[in-house]
Write a structure and sequence with these properties.
Layout lengths: L14 E12 L2 E8 L10 E7 L5 E7 L9 E7 L7 H6 L6 E8 L13 E6 L4 H12 L6 E7 L8 H10 L3 E7 L16 H8 L8 E7 H13 L7 E6 L2
Parallel strand pairs: 7-8, 7-10, 8-9, 10-11
Antiparallel strand pairs: 1-2, 1-6, 2-5, 3-4, 3-6
Length: about 250
């Protein structure tokens, strides 16, 4: 995710974090769980910087949203999508192993954050790996046993590429007041309530109508194209632009 600047930085110092778990979430996304040498308090929606240093001293740095809820004690989960031409993600997919020491700093970012104390209703819109900071918010909502009315509209190319799909479906079944809608752009949905097309105005109006009142906050995260389309659609659906917070990744 893009570095949001100095605002919200609790710790700009680098630390060594130990990689304690690697798992495959989708064909192109892996989950990495890191144990922090210096545990920090963070807000749902914040991110960290990872830094790799080559033997010749060359450094590559990328920002990744934290998927964990703030209640995670000394551990943070990142979901890293493989970019074939990337400098950082291929390392974590092909080289990194449990036990490795990874340079990390954070938490970073103070704009794209949410906590149950802020209330709702809450509308979350994500595309692909853009669901990661939204997942942190929903996990935080669950762990805090908050009853904030919330809807997540998650777009992905296929069901197999829908990040955290099983956990989200289980969360919807178990967490009162949370509704999930999936939109797959290459294939047909399995559930009749989901969509088999790209985000559009009719879809956005339908998910807004699932909330008991207009959302107090709208969080949108994904590629430039998805964020622009979703933001325009939210305004066209009659919601106030000042309720929106957006985060973009990619070119």
């Amino acid at each position: 995710m893009t570095d949001l600047g100095a605002a919200g930085r609790a710790d700009g110092m680098w630390q060594a974090a130990r990689l304690v778990q690697i798992s495959t979430l989708t064909p192109r996304i892996k989950s990495l769980v890191l144990a922090l040498q210096r545990p920090f308090t963070f807000r749902a929606g914040q991110h960290v910087d990872l830094r790799l240093t080559a033997p010749d001293g060359y450094q590559a740095r990328r920002s990744y949203s934290i998927a964990s809820a703030p209640s995670s004690s000394g551990l943070i989960e990142l979901a890293i999508e493989r970019l074939d031409d990337g400098e950082v993600s291929p390392f974590f997919h092909d080289v990194a192993a449990v036990g490795d020491s990874i340079e990390l700093r954070g938490p970073l970012g103070g704009h794209f954050v949410w906590g149950p104390e802020e209330g709702g209703p809450l509308l979350l819109i994500g595309g692909g790996s853009g669901v990661v900071p939204l997942m942190a918010m929903l996990r935080h909502r669950r762990d805090a046993q908050a009853d904030v009315p919330s809807v997540l509209l998650l777009s992905s190319r296929t069901l197999a590429e829908t990040l955290y799909r099983d956990e989200l479906l289980a969360m919807e079944a178990a967490a009162p007041g949370f509704t999930l809608r999936l939109a797959v752009t290459r294939g047909a949905p399995e559930r009749p309530v989901d969509y088999g097309r790209r985000l559009d105005l009719a879809m956005l109006k339908a998910v807004v109508a699932l909330l008991p009142a207009p959302p107090r906050q709208v969080f949108i995260c994904g590629t430039n194209g998805l964020v622009s389309a979703a933001a325009d659609g939210v305004v066209a659906a009659g919601l106030a632009a000042e309720t929106m917070r957006t985060e973009r990744y990619g070119g």
